[in-house]
Amino acid sequence: MADQFVDLRSDTVTRPTAGMREAMATAEVGDDVYGEDPTVNALEAEVAALFGHEAALFAPSGSMANQIALQLLVSPGDELLCDADAHVVTYEIGAAAAYGGISSRTWPAVGADIDPETVAGMIRPDGFFAVPTRAIAVEQTHNRGGGGVIPLGTLRDLRAVADDAGVALHCDGARIWHAHVADGVPLIEYGRLFDTLSVCLSKGLGAPVGSLVVGSADKIERARLIRKRMGGGMRQAGVLAAAGRYALAHHVDRLADDHAKASRLAEAVAPFGVLATTARTNLVALDLTKHALDARALAAVARAEGVLISVLGPRTARLVTHLGVSDADIDHAVEALPRILTAS
Fold it and tell me: In the CATH scheme, what architecture does the domain 254-343 have?
């Protein structure tokens, strides 16, 4: 068993940097449920401005932020459309149905390669004794799509589809910072396309916790009530918000380093026919359908070699670069992974 590990399981495993810990330790705080935490208020105003919206709301997790946004857009018994691999229907434990009474219908999983005409054809209007569609959700970047970036043109077409049908458009933007860095699209350009967004501070940006719901002032006023109902009201949350503000100031541009590291990993495994898709950002998706090792076996062998990877399915695995992965760590991984894949 290896003495030292390179943790490529997720970008949620990062630790706060020294500068971030200092910001947290010195944060000015108050009671956020009363709206009196100045650091939370500053973070919410900053993120809202980045995306060109009126307001934002700090939430403990990306799942809660997504589910708050969906409840803002879809009434109980009405319908959300998204792809079959979307985080909101794959990794949020049925929350849309359990908390919002929302009916979900999906198009076939294609990652970031969405066909707006297919989505348009799925929208159900009021009447006809069918569940009416109220919102469309997309994921930028797409987790199970290997960190794929939905092109700006596709998002504009989806906005037109939503407008023509009179439905809302939500962005699960947990990793939207990566799309911004990879394609150079300004955050405000993304923001103007969506009625609501959720954006995460605790993945690529390296904060220990927290996401935000972004939208209009009236939506965010309602969102505060939904957050409280879901148990998300926090008190002196400025300690956490300070980490998010530090991350926004110091950890966005550096995401390009994570993309370069992911490209090195992709190049190392590509000759073995297991690369599921081009590595556009910090995720490297592995398809082991034609390999001798399944995902759990690969993860076990890699762990023995000091490389931790994520198992997403019987024949699907994932490598993720992040703030806590050094160039030396990548050197170790690109030496170990080909050896493992060859030996098998």
Answer: Alpha-Beta Complex (3.90)
CA distances from 39 to 24, 47, 200, 226, 238 (A): 10, 12, 17, 21, 5
Cα dihedral sign, 70-140-252-312: positive
d(CA 58, CA 49): 14
Specify the pLDDT at position 75. 97
The span from the CA of 53 to the CA of 217, in Å, is: 8
Residue among 198, 205, 240, 201 at smallest CA distance from 223: 198
Using DSSP, state whether 227 is helix, strand or coil: helix
Q: Where are the domains of the chain?
A: 18-251, 254-343
42 Cβ contact list (under 8 Å, min separation 6):
241, 245
What is the reported pTM? 0.96
State the Cα–Cα distance between residues 163 and 181, nearest whole angstrom: 28
Three-state DSSP state, 277: coil
Pairing, β 55-59 against β 6-7: unpaired
Continuous H helices in the chain: 18-25, 38-50, 62-73, 87-90, 95-100, 116-122, 152-165, 176-183, 187-191, 217-229, 238-250, 255-269, 295-304, 327-343
Domain 18-251 CATH (choose: 3.40.640.10, 3.30.70.1660, 3.40.190.10, 3.40.50.300): 3.40.640.10
Query: Token pair for residue 168?
Result: 């809302």
Count of CB atoms situated within 10 Å of the CB of 299: 18
Q: Which two tokens stand for residue 238?
A: 């400025």
Give the per-residue pLDDT at 179.
98
Low-confidence ranges of the chain (pLDDT < 70): 1, 344
